[in-house]
Write a structure and sequence with these properties.
This protein has 10 helices and 16 strands. With 325 residues, it is an alpha/beta fold. The strands form 3 sheets. Strands 3, 5, 6, 7, 8, 15 and 16 form a 7-stranded mixed β-sheet that branches. The radius of gyration is 19 Å and the shape is globular.
Amino acid sequence: MTYRALYLSNTPEFSARVAELDELPAGDVELRVDYSTLNYKDALALTNTSPIVRSWPMVAGIDAAGVVDHSTHPDFQPGDAVVLNGWGLGETRWGGLAQRTRAPGDWLVKLPSPFSPRDAAAIGTAGYTAAMCVQALERHGLTPADGPILVTGATGGVGSIAVMLLARAGFEVIALTGKSADPTYLKNLGAAAVLDRADLAAPGKPLQKEHFAGVIDALGSQVLANACARVRRNGAVAACGLAMGMDFPASVAPFILRGITLYGIDSVYASPARRQAAWARLAGGLDVNQLAGIAHAIGLEETLAAAAKMLAGQITGRFVVDVNR
């Protein structure tokens, strides 16, 4: 059986195209994919802007949501709605921007109610990472009474879901974005205030005025350093992204003089138990109706153009890719 997929090759030079394929990766569960997503990492791979792909040729896409077609895994039966995130998809293993795929059953999560495969794609790795960040702050002991939570890169996938989860949990959310001219999108998600990313983008003092009880950061670099410098005593920061860079030009001062904690969030290779807990947190903490407001549906052929727009900073919210369109 052939299927359509977004196929990346580097011979004789880099190319990205929609192709008809008849091979599938290894695994004991075969999926009929309904939806995938376009993440920042996908955009880097599709434009060959960064060395995301480490095995060639590659089917792009770090997310897949759909229905089990065939399974020899005891936990999955044909007809089960499932989601597949991370595990090297789109990097070392053929990914989810395809009409079909195959994966080890231990990598899959059964879709919790009330989510559909389209909802799962609207959430994707970005939203599931956001849930892990929120859980890190909650495990640290932060509550709404402790003060505001800063979310950086707030109009992106991680940021949008993080704002929604925190706001519904009763936190005062301060959203940081490079698109601060129109705060309507973030206010509708639950942000109490919107800051311009430029406020934290320039080098600052190692210790600054205490303001935030916690931070969820998707940017890294100078923004993360300044955010740490503004966290209140015994607060916490969950770092999960590097959209502004991998560097961290910070001081130890906030950590040893204010006792703040920096949590690194790895969602790609998280254990099955942590994945299931994150998806349960999403199921209990998101308004499904709000997802429609952050997700833009596109077809497989439109993904390449959308990737360029994403890297140019022209996108707000999430791209859901209907792989059958």
